[in-house]
Design a protein that fits this description.
alpha+beta; 3 domains; PB1-like_dom_pln; transposition; transposase activity; Transposase_MuDR; DNA recombination
């Protein structure tokens, strides 16, 4: 999951002269939004619903520079999402209202295919300034559309960090980076991948210079070009006349964190000693316990932030479910700690969609299966689930819940909500099947005193085999 900031620009004016310009007025934002949930229709609805547009004729996006691209459907959204990286996480959207004239900008989907001569664009210009600029240009003039920004972002996106850092083994003249810090990260990963202890000779906001050990001809100089965004390798001698090193000063804890980021996201229990052994086995490089410890802490702190952001969005998620699925039951419980000022702590959540309720009432057998399982990862907890059986003996999901623990209290809470959702009353004529979960049997007898209960044979056999 990648979190992005989405900025909706509105209230400004499109200036359609030889240069297309937008005078920015107001902004509306979604901060820390899950990029996997972005859809074309949601963005359009935000303009028509929240920002009171009559209708969206064109949806337009740009990056940190003034280059605009039109997004016409979800294929355009997918193209934009393919460019998202650690350096490109703020998406600026603009809309052309249905009552306005259209804007001539390129379709983002066609970006990778070809680059025809297109119109130059700009922002933050008053109408008077724009008109005076256009007076100096001939009416039909067009200039080449500068796509350097997206080229740089696309290349950085493709430079993935794999096990052996294969994408970082080579440098070449003209290689571009977003800025000096990004270039420094790349050089450090190059140093790790090639087992070379490069020495930094110059470092400031505009330039980076590295050499290898005395007697080695390797040298790289990186600085910016005023005519293009970002920085580039201007001088490079890629040849080495030195051996591999075991202790590498370029491999700091930030570099280790970059290398292990995905692995620790997938498995937060990955041990520090395993990190050290992994780097030694792959790169024959020695890193200290302290560096690995700091790297792991850095990754997990960022990961924890994403967990917190996810929980902060639960209420909005619940409201969206209720709005898009009328008649559905979506319940969130907060812990008692939430009674303290400014404290909100998640405890339990229950979901039963309206269509699932109707399906049970209109065509399912009077048979319900109950089970629970542990949730792994940082958040932990228990997933409780209830399923039905249709007349083809196929499993039919009815409802589910996330709870802190599996106890009689939580099963009571879950079954009482299920009773209300499916209108089961005292459970007469209903058969429940389950394993011998903690507190479940008592909860079934308490909430549905007239129901029948049977044990799952598969679980009985498994329990006997254990004994």
């Amino acid at each position: 999951m990648t979190l992005v900031d989405i900025i909706f620009h509105h209230g400004g004016d499109w200036i359609r002269k030889s240069h297309i310009l937008y005078s920015k007025k107001l902004v509306h934002s979604w901060e820390g939004y899950d990029s996997d949930l972005i859809s074309f229709i949601d963005l359009v609805n935000e303009y028509t619903g929240e920002l009171m547009y009559i209708g969206v004729q064109q949806l337009i996006v740009n990056g940190s520079s003034s280059n605009y691209y039109e997004v016409v459907d979800d294929s355009g959204i997918r193209q934009l999402l393919s460019l998202i990286s650690d350096e490109f996480k703020c998406l600026n959207f603009y809309a052309v209202d249905k009552c306005e004239l259209s804007v001539n900008v390129p379709n983002i989907v066609h970006y990778f295919d070809s680059h025809p001569s297109l119109t130059e664009v700009g922002t933050d210009c008053s109408e008077v300034e724009c008109e005076s600029e256009s007076d100096n240009d001939s009416e039909g003039d067009e200039v080449g559309y500068d796509s350097k920004e997206l080229q740089t972002i696309a290349y950085q996106k493709n430079r993935e960090i794999d096990v052996g850092l294969q994408n970082y083994k080579e440098l070449y003249k003209g290689m571009s980076f977003k800025d000096i810090p990004e270039a420094r990260k790349c050089i450090n990963l190059y140093s790790l991948a090639n087992k070379k202890d490069l020495k930094q000779e110059k470092s400031d906001k505009e330039r980076l210079r590295y050499k290898c050990v005395p007697g080695c001809p390797f040298v790289v100089l990186i600085f910016g070009d005023g005519n293009l965004p970002g920085v580039r390798i201007k001088t490079l001698n890629p040849e080495h006349a030195c051996g591999e090193v075991f202790d590498n000063s370029r491999v700091d804890y930030h570099t280790i964190a970059l290398y292990f980021k995905k692995k620790l996201q997938d498995n937060p229990m990955y041990k520090i000693k395993e990190m050290r052994a992994d780097i030694k086995n792959v790169f024959n490089t020695n890193v200290s316990y302290g560096k690995c410890k700091r790297a792991k802490r850095e990754i997990l702190e960022k990961l924890e932030g994403s967990f917190i952001d996810g929980y902060n969005k639960l209420e909005a998620y619940a409201n969206e479910l209720r709005e898009s699925n009328p008649g559905s039951d979506v319940i969130i419980n907060l812990s008692k700690d939430a009674l303290a000022p400014s404290v909100r702590r998640f405890l339990r959540m229950y979901i039963c969609f309206h269509t699932l309720k109707m399906g049970f009432k209109e065509g399912l057998r009077p048979f319900i299966g109950l089970d629970g399982t542990f949730l792994k990862g940082k958040a932990k907890g228990q997933l409780l689930i209830v399923v039905g059986l249709d007349y083809n003996n196929q499993t039919y999901h009815l409802a589910w819940a996330i709870v802190d623990k599996e106890t009689k209290r939580t099963w009571n809470w879950f079954l009482e909500l299920l009773q209300r959702s499916l209108d089961l009353k005292e459970g007469k004529g209903i058969t429940f099947m389950s394993d011998m979960q903690k507190g479940l049997i008592q909860a079934v007898h308490t909430v549905f005193p007239e129901s029948n209960h049977r044990y799952c044979v598969k679980h009985i056999e498994a329990n006997w085999c254990k004994k």
